[in-house]
């Protein structure tokens, strides 16, 4: 009987927020078969944004940290088998099996790809000891231990995580230098105008920033003692933090004829595509590993590395997968509006849409050079509002500008919609 | 009717809940959360979404 040769099982590869949300949404979508979530970390899914902020500043004991960060699964998410501590090592999509690092082989009828990202490293010579990344709770606990008052801390990379770590370390009394890299602080997600304001804030709080250079070598014998910059400067450091982006964890999918160049290529339903662009039956992707189209802002498919992405994509991918396993076509896919935030010292920055894809930036209110006093920026692509960022403003303002982005997209207008009164 | 509670010591007024379930959560002009503790069961789906998207995971569904 065919139903005996094919297990009624969905395997979710990845047990962080994406794996959890996928499991919850599969139950919501009516999947009553087996659900197995496989993850390499020993912990159940936990919340990562605090790892570079309050949890880095004050983690407490590991048990307290984990208790504070653990997600509470939806009540309806029952009957889930969690296999933690040994991630998926390989998959054979034709035979419909995955193999864990422990050597266990599991058959599946449906597969959710949710293995996420790992931190990139600065690819230059030098000792590894004394150099940190921030991705897991263990990373944060290890870094916290080194962030003693007076320690000289070099943070390499000035995206959200680099800036947040620099701010937190400064707040702990460390002497922090931020090596910006090829763009300014948070410049890629927020634009040059706000980036200058963020840099000034960092400087005002005692964080030294170095622009227009890069690390060419780490110093030290057994343990890293500093770094050498491309302009010849030498920076001595007790602690080095690398926050230079991430790599998608796609290696386990190799050999299946997929396009794995920077994440897993998907269609708007989050169905994983083969290299010919055809959906692979019964395989979807969730979270920041998924590279999917962006009909709202336009441009090529992209990965979205925001906290909201696993939740947003699981809501699309789960009903897609369940429909596919029933031999049905997926329903219409509503493209989620990306959203993100960062906290820097006491400043809340919130964004929606795709500011990084803008070709022009306009001030909606305030002065981007003084973000702490309240500023809102609009981001335009081909004269259409595709994103908005607020800094130092109450959430109600963020909600208003978010609505303006939605209105601009709904109208399809190439002329910006009138914005709500400030 | 269904019931929620919000841990206001955790709540950081991100406002994401007010996007998912505007009938239950709203941000006032000062940017502070206001919410209904009791709501119609028909709103349960969107309240669960609000619980999902809270960055602080500060919203709790009561039994």
Automatic annotation (TrEMBL), chain A:
Transmembrane segments: none annotated. Residues 9-305 form the FAD/NAD(P)-binding domain. Pfam families: Pyr_redox_2. Keywords: FAD, Flavoprotein, Oxidoreductase. The keyword Oxidoreductase applies. InterPro entries: FAD-oxidoreductase/Apoptosis, FAD/NAD-bd_sf, FAD/NAD-binding_dom, FAD/NAD-linked_Rdtase_dimer_sf. The keyword Flavoprotein applies. It comes from the Bacteria. Its cofactor is FAD. SUPFAM superfamilies: FAD/NAD(P)-binding domain, FAD/NAD-linked reductases, dimerisation (C-terminal) domain. PANTHER family: APOPTOSIS-INDUCING FACTOR 1 (PTHR43557), RIESKE DOMAIN-CONTAINING PROTEIN-RELATED (PTHR43557:SF2). This is FAD/NAD(P)-binding oxidoreductase. It comes from Arthrobacter ginkgonis.
TrEMBL record, chain B:
Its cofactor is [3Fe-4S] cluster. Keywords: 3Fe-4S, Electron transport, Iron, Iron-sulfur, Metal-binding, Transport. InterPro entries: 3Fe4S_ferredoxin, Fe-S_cluster_ET. It comes from the Bacteria. PANTHER family: FERREDOXIN. Ferredoxins are iron-sulfur proteins that transfer electrons in a wide variety of metabolic reactions. This is Ferredoxin. It comes from Arthrobacter ginkgonis.
């Amino acid at each position: 009987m065919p139903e005996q040769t094919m297990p009624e099982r969905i395997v979710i590869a990845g047990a962080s927020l994406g794996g959890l949300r996928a499991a919850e949404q599969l139950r919501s979508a009516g999947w009553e078969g087996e659900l197995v979530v496989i993850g390499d970390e020993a912990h159940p899914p936990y919340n990562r944004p605090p790892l570079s902020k309050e949890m880095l500043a004050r983690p407490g004991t590991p048990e307290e940290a984990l208790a504070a960060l653990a997600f509470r699964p939806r009540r309806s998410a029952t009957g889930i088998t969690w296999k933690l501590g040994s991630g998926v090592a390989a998959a054979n999509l034709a035979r419909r099996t995955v193999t864990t690092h422990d050597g266990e082989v599991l058959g599946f009828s449906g597969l959710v790809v949710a293995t996420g990202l790992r931190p990139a490293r600065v690819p230059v010579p030098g000792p590894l000891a004394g150099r940190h990344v921030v991705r897991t709770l263990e990373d944060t606990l290890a870094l916290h231990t080194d962030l003693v008052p007076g320690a000289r801390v070099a943070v390499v990379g000035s995206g959200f995580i680099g800036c947040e770590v620099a701010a937190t370390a400064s707040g702990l009394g460390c002497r922090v230098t931020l090596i910006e890299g090829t763009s300014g602080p948070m410049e890629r997600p927020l634009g040059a105008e706000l980036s200058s304001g963020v840099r000034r804030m960092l400087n005002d709080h005692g964080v030294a920033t170095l622009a227009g250079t890069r690390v060419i070598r780490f110093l030290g014998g057994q343990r890293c003692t500093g770094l050498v910059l491309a302009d010849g400067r030498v920076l001595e450091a007790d602690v080095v933090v690398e926050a230079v982006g991430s790599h998608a964890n796609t290696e386990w999918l190799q050999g299946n004829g997929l396009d794995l160049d920077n994440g897993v290529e998907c269609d708007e339903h989050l169905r994983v595509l083969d290299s010919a662009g055809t959906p692979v039956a019964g395989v979807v992707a969730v979270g920041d590993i998924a590279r999917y189209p962006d009909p709202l802002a336009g441009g090529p498919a992209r990965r979205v590395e925001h906290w909201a992405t696993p939740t947003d994509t699981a809501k699309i991918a789960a009903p897609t997968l369940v429909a596919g396993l029933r031999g049905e076509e997926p329903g219409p896919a509503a493209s989620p509006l990306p959203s993100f935030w960062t906290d820097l010292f006491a400043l809340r920055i919130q964004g929606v849409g795709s500011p990084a894809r803008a070709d022009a930036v306009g001030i909606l209110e305030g002065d981007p050079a003084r973000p702490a006093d309240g500023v809102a920026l609009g981001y335009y692509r081909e004269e259409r509002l595709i994103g908005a960022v607020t800094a130092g403003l109450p959430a109600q303002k963020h909600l208003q500008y978010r609505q303006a982005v939605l209105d601009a997209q709904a109208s399809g207008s190439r002329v910006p919609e009138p914005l709500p009164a400030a | 009717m269904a019931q929620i509670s919000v841990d206001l010591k955790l709540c950081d007024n991100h406002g994401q809940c007010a996007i998912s379930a505007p009938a239950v959560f709203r941000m006032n002009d000062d940017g502070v959360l206001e919410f209904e503790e009791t709501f119609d069961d028909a709103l349960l789906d969107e309240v669960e979404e609000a619980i999902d998207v809270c960055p602080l995971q500060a919203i709790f569904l009561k039994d």
